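Technical note accompanying the year-one report. For the benefit of new consortium partners, we illustrate the data format agreed upon in the data management plan: each record pairs a sequence with a C-alpha cell string. No post-processing was applied to the example shown here.
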Amino acid sequence: MRLINYYIDYFYFNLDTYPLVVKIAVSIILFFLFFNLGEIIVSLFQKLFKKNKKNIVINKEDLNYQKLIELLVNRENIEFDSLRESIFEFDEDFKKDWKTIISMLMSIKLDCVKYLSDEFNYHNSRNLCRIFDLGVFWDERLTKGSYKEKMDTLNEIIELNATISESILATLVYHKNNELRKRARLAQIHLSKHDPFRFFEEDFDKDFTRWDKIKIHDILLRRSVKTIPNFARWVPIIENVELKCLFIYEIGYFLQVENRAYLFDLFKTTKEDKVKIECLNSLSLLGIQEYKDSIIDLYSVCSEDVQVVIIRSLKNINRENKILKFFVNAFDKTYETSLKIEIGQTMYIFGDNGKKVVHVLEQRGEGFEKLIFEHIKNPLLQNY
C-alpha cells in the first residue's frame, strides 16, 4: 500500500511541474482510459450474465404446449377469427410471454420435421403469430437486436411462415455482413407480395450454398402457385452455378413445360456438368422423348457423370429397340465399372428384351466382367 501511495504522490508531484496544456492533455487521457476500462468491465459482466442466464426450458406436458400442438399439427386450415377465439383458452400471462411462445412454436415445427410423422400447418402458424402479436417483438429485435438476435429472428419468421412489415428488412437486405444479408433476402422472398424475387436479378448472392437452395425451395412451396414465376427468365443472367441449377430444378419441379426447348438448348451449349445434369433431370419430368435422338448423339462427348444421368433419363422412355441398341453399344464401349453397372442395370429392367440382351452379354463375358453381371442381376448387391 505504501508503494502505491509513493507512486501516486510521485505522479502528482511531476504533473504539477508540467505546463498547463500538458496537464489538460494528461487529464483527458486518464479520463478516457478509466472510462473505456469501465466499459470493458461492464461489457464483460453483461456477457457473463447472459451466458449464465438459463435458456427457456420447454415443458411438453404443459397445457399451453398441448393446445398449440392441436392447432399446428392439424390438417385443417382454421380461419383467423375462429383461431382467435381459441386462444382465450390460453393463460393471460402466457399470451404476453413472446419468447416462450416462439420457443414452443419452433419446438413443434422441429419435431414435425424431425419425426416426419406429422405435418406442420403453416397456415395456422402464420395466424397464431398474428394473434399473439409476435411481430412487435420481432420488429424490435430486427431494429435494435444483436447480430445473433437478428439472424435468429429472420429464421423464426421464415420457419413459422410469419409476416412482418417489409420496411423492416430494408436496411438488412443490403447489409455488409454476408450471412445476415442473405438471410434477409430469403425473408424477402417469403414476405414480399409485390416483388419477392427482385434479388434474383442481382444473382441473389455470391456466397450461395446448398443450404440456401433448400431454404428457397421450402419457401417457394408455401407460396401460391399463381405467384410462382417462370424461372427461365433468370437462368441466362445468373453466373453462380448453384443458383442456376436451382432455377433449372424449379422449372422441372413446377412443371413449366414451356421451357423444354430452352433446357435442351442449354444442355447442348453449357460447359458446366452440374448444369447439364440438372437440365436432364428437369427434362425427365417435363418430357424428354422428343430429344432422345439428339441426346444419344451427344452421349459420347459428355463426361462420365453426365453419361450416368443420360442413361437414367432414357430408361424411363417407352420401350424402344433403338434405345436398347444404344444401351448395348454404350455398354461395350465403356471401361468404367460404375458406368458399366449403371447401363447393365438399366438394360436388365428394360423389359424382356433387355433381360435377354444382358443374358447374351453375360455369356460372352470373361473374368471380372462376370462379377459385373452378378452385380447387375443380384438385387442384394445393388448398393455395393
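Partners are asked to follow this layout when depositing records. The two ends are 78 Å apart (CA to CA).
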